[in-house]
Records
---
Amino acid sequence: MSTAPQISGITPLTTIDFPDHLACVVYTQGCPLRCGYCQNPHLIPFESGDGAISWGQVLDFLQQRRGLLEAVVFSGGEPTLQPGLRAAMLTAIELGYKVGLHSAGVSARHLAELLGLLDWVGLDVKAPDHLYPQVTGRTHQPGQNRRCLELLLESSTAFECRTTVDWRLLQPDDLLQLAQQLQQQGVQHYALQINHGGHCLDPRLRQPALIDPGQKALLKARLEGIFPHFEWRE
Ligand code: SF4
C-alpha cells in the first residue's frame, strides 16, 4: 500500500499562489529548515499536529471542486520530502488539475522525481550562500538549493524564485548580490516577500523591522532593472 502525504491543512481558494489560476493550497507537515521568520512553525515537526487532515479528505474536496478550481498547489512545510507526494500529484492531475509546488529547494533528488508533473514552482532562495545558515538555521543547504534551481532552469517548468526578507537578517547589498547571482544563472521571475513579524519561529523577529524608504526605493529600482519580472510583496 502506498504512503499518503501528511497533510496539515488546506486553503480552499486562492488567486495568489499559482499565477493566473484559481487554486487551492494543500499544506504538508514537516520541514528540515528553521527559518527565524517562519510564519508556520506548527508545520516544522514531521509528526502531524492537531489540525491534521487526511489525504482522503483532500481528495474528497478535489472531487467536489472539479471544474471550479484550476490548480492544486502543494506547500508546507517542505512538500518534496513527503513520501506520497508524487502519487498525490498524479491523482490531482487525473482529476484535471494543474499542479503547483512551493519548495525551499532542500533536496534536488526529491525535486527531480516530481519535475515532470509540475506546471509551476515557487522556489525559495533564502540568502546568498554565506548567509544561508544564519537565515535557515541549518548548514549544507545552499548546494541543494542551487542544484534545485539548476534542475528548474534545465526543465520546461515555469517557476519563480523568491526570497523572504527580514531586515535584521538580510541587507540590501546581500539581496543585490543574490539577485546578480540568480540573474547570471538565468532566472527571469523574482520576488521579495517582506517579513512583518507576527507569529515568527524566532521570538526576536516578531516585531516588524523597517528599512529606510530611500534605501527601499533604490533597491526596488535596481531589482526591477535586473529581472524581466520582479515583484516586491509587502
Ligand atoms: S519558512 Fe523555512 S522553516 Fe518555515 S516552512 Fe518555510 S522553509 Fe520551512
---
Amino acid sequence: MQISLKKIYSGKVRDLYEIDDKRMLMVATDRLSAFDVILDDPIPRKGEILTQISNFWFDKLSHIMPNHFTGDSVFDVLPKEEAEAIQYRAVVCKRLTPVKIESIVRGYLTGSGLKDYQKTGTICGLALPKGLVEASKLPEPIFTPSSKAEVGDHDINISYAECERQIGAELAAKVRDAAIALYKEAADYALTKGIIICDTKFEFGLDENGTLTLMDEVLTPDSSRFWSVDTYQEGTNPPSFDKQFIRDWLENSGWNKQAPAPRVPADVIEKTVAKYQEALDLLTK
Ligand SMILES: Nc1ncnc2c1ncn2[C@@H]1O[C@H](COP(=O)(O)OP(=O)(O)OP(=O)(O)O)[C@@H](O)[C@H]1O
Ligand SMILES: [Mg+2]
C-alpha cells in the first residue's frame, strides 16, 4: 500500500513517515530480520500481530511511565483508504529523541548472556551466582545494556559504567530502573498466561520536555524471548513463541549469517506466523 506521507526512515522491520514536526506514523512491515539480516521472504501478517502485541503492552504498562502515543488514530492522519489498509500495523507516535542504547533486561540465562556468563561468570560486567545453566532463572532481573549498532552492524553488550559514559549517569539510572520495572510487571502478568518472558529489549526516547518516554515496540516476539511454562526446563533451550524458531532453522541450514539469507521454506514461514499469533492470543485473551 502506497502511503501519501513522506517516508523518513526505513528500519529493518518498520518504516517511519512524517506527519508534522511533532508526530510520525510508524508502520510495521512483514519483514523479518534475523542475525541482523533482513530475510527475502516476508512473514505474512507479522507486522499486524507485532503491532497488536505492542499496543497491548503500551496500554498495560502505561501506569509505569509515559509512552510515545499521541492519542491520534491512523484515520486522523491518513485518507480513509490508506488508513483502512494499514490500521492494524500502524500507530501515530511522538517524534522523540532516541536514547542511544538498547535497554535489555534479562530474567533468565540464555543466548549471548549465557555465552558471556560461561566465559566470565558475568554479563555486562555484572557478577552472577556460580552454577547457573542454560535457561536458569536469575536471582533478580538484570539490566544488560547494549550499544545501538548502525544498519548492518551487530549490537555490542556494554557494562553499566560504559552505558553511564554514553548517555550520562542520571539518564542511565532512570533508564535502568524503568526497564526493570516494566520487565517485572510484564513478566508477572505473562506468567499468569503461561508465558515466561526470558528477556527483552526496550527503547526509550526523550520528549520535548526531556521526559523519559517508552517508544518503538514493546515486549513482542521480535524484541523478546518468550517461553512456554509447560515446556520450560532448566538446563535445556526451551522452544519459543518467537523469532527463535526461524533463527534455529537458519542456524541449522548452515548459513554463514552474511546477507543474503537462504530462502525460507513455506512451512517454516507458516509455523513462524502461527507462533507469533499464538503469543498474541495467549497474552491478550
Ligand atoms: N517515538 C519514536 N521516536 C523516534 N524514533 C522512534 C520512535 N519509535 C521508534 N523509533 C525508531 O524507529 C525505528 C523503528 O524501525 P525498526 O525497528 O525497523 O528499526 P531497526 O532496523 O531496528 O533500526 P535501528 O537499527 O535504528 O534500531 C527504530 O530506529 C526506533 O529506534
Ligand atoms: Mg528495531
